[in-house]
Design brief:
Layout lengths: L2 E8 L6 H5 L4 E5 L7 H14 L2 E5 L17 H21 L6 E2 L3 H9 L1 H12 L6 E4 L4 H8 L4 E6 L23 H14 L1 E3 L5 E3 L4 E5 L5 H14 L3 E2 L6
Parallel strand pairs: 1-2, 1-9, 1-10, 2-3, 3-4, 4-5, 5-6, 6-9
Antiparallel strand pairs: 7-8
Helix pairs in contact: 2-3, 3-5, 4-5, 5-6, 7-8
């Protein structure tokens, strides 16, 4: 039987957190850089604990005005400090509920910059490596981030997006372009099943792209996110895909 982790980005202002958590196996909680605050983080952690969902951090550039989507909004020591602070808050909140931080998934531009730039990848990996329990890093299957994680001996979980359109080179179609974000539940569900069972997505050019992923992302702030998540989970169950968090080695 095929298996896949299903994760959702949460704490970004969505009103469906509890319902989404009933459908996924992991969550990535915004840590205040692009969205969220101590109250929203605490609520998300509590709801995840009640749902038995793995708690992960979703840190970003300190860019609330740009929702963390402006490239290289911070670097060097400033980036190290803000990421350490963001993760520290969530680590402590999770500990208050008897939970460990299972993984860290960068948000937005930080996610893509860590795949492209050695210095950004090294900072992200260093901060994660300093977290209690050394959580896994969730990120793109290729690029600089998995290399940086490997150098520090960190677990790495390759991710694919159920609700984003891919280009033939494996990159995502930029959000500002029409069709970059998939909003039809049936289309997202079909892409999720294709990735989970065959490791293939159809690109914007109509070609097949191989993609090896151990976790699938659903964006909690996408219009109709809950309907999309329900369709994806139903489709994965119908395809006999076991939805579960990645196991530790």
């Amino acid at each position: 039987m095929a298996s896949i982790d299903l994760n959702a980005d949460l704490g970004e202002g969505e009103s469906t957190t509890a319902d989404l958590l009933a459908l996924v196996s992991s969550c990535n909680i915004a840590c205040g850089g692009h969205a969220g605050d101590r109250d929203s983080m605490s609520r998300a952690v509590l709801l995840a604990a009640c749902a038995g969902v793995a708690v992960g951090a979703h840190p970003s550039y300190p860019d609330r005005a740009g929702f963390g989507r402006r490239s290289r909004h911070a670097d060097g020591h400033a980036l190290y400090e803000t990421l350490s602070q963001q993760l520290g808050v969530l680590v402590n909140l999770a500990a208050d509920h008897g939970l460990d931080l299972v993984h860290v998934k960068p948000h937005g531009a930080l996610y893509h910059d860590a795949a492209r730039f050695d210095d950004i990848a090294e900072i992200v990996a260093r901060v994660v490596g300093e977290c209690p329990g050394q959580p896994a890093i969730v990120g793109p299957p290729a690029g600089r981030l998995p290399v940086a994680a490997g150098r520090l001996g960190l677990r790495y979980v390759a991710e694919a997006f159920a609700d984003r359109r891919y280009r033939p080179d494996g990159s995502l179609v930029p959000r500002e372009r029409p069709g970059a974000v998939l909003e039809d539940p049936a289309e997202v569900a079909a892409q999720a099943v294709s990735i989970a069972t065959r490791g293939v997505v159809q690109t914007d050019a109509g070609t097949a792209l191989g993609i090896a992923a151990r976790t699938l992302c659903l964006h909690g702030d996408t219009p109709g996110a809950l309907d999309i998540a329900r369709a994806v989970r139903l489709a994965l169950d119908a395809a006999h895909v076991d939805v579960c968090r990645p196991g530790r080695p």
